[in-house]
Amino acid sequence: MLAERGWLTRAHHGLYSLVPLDAAVSGEWIDDPWLVVAKLYPTGYIGGWSACEHWGLTDQLFREIVVFTPDRGAPRHADAGVTPIRIKFVKPSKVFGTTTVWRRNVRVNVSDPSRTVVDLLDDPAIGGGIRQVADVTDTYLSGDNQNEELLIEYSDRLGNRAVFKRLGYLAEMSDPRSALLVEACRSRISTGVSLLDPSSPATGPIVTRWNLRINVDISR
Description:
Blueprint: E1 8-12, E2 15-18, H1 33-40, E3 45-46, H2 48-55, E4 65-69, E5 78-80, E6 83-89, E7 98-103, E8 106-111, H3 113-122, H4 130-141, H5 148-158, H6 161-174, H7 179-186, E9 194-195, E10 206-207, E11 212-213
Parallel strand pairs: 4-6, 9-11
Antiparallel strand pairs: 1-2, 3-4, 5-6, 7-8, 10-11
Helix pairs in contact: 2-3, 3-4, 3-5, 4-6, 6-7
């Protein structure tokens, strides 16, 4: 009844948020979408492009919030007002490299900068595509949050060898000072050929040094 009258807005079945009196469109208003995420996905974390925005790794603005969760019983589709929530299910063992931030006295889990970059290299689509991921990686490697040892540690734990191929290739293009990072990646790549961007067609030249097919042009 309160939702129908505009006093509450529904985020999901059984979950509502109070609407302030000065809200322009009561049915679409959500005070802070991250609070909805914390309630619906307490064992998960905010990541992907949403974490990039939080850590200042990108100037791009995205309409959806990306959430990683190990809870298969969690809602597969949800919205925080006009903000859609994009879900990526992961194994419980893959939930690591996160930190807690406070939003209006509510604890919200978010991937730390290094884990954010590794997640994007694992699945460039949740970073807006490989071109955007290349920009984020460049910003990370040249910024205060840069931590090459942590990048390697997280990539090892994630267990996707293609991450090392993409990371090494991008690091080599981005920063000549990343020689140690590049060599660490080189020692961990697999023998098969991977795609620079898994969501794009498997065309383009193969860089044998990285066993990587460059199926998207990211040259600047």
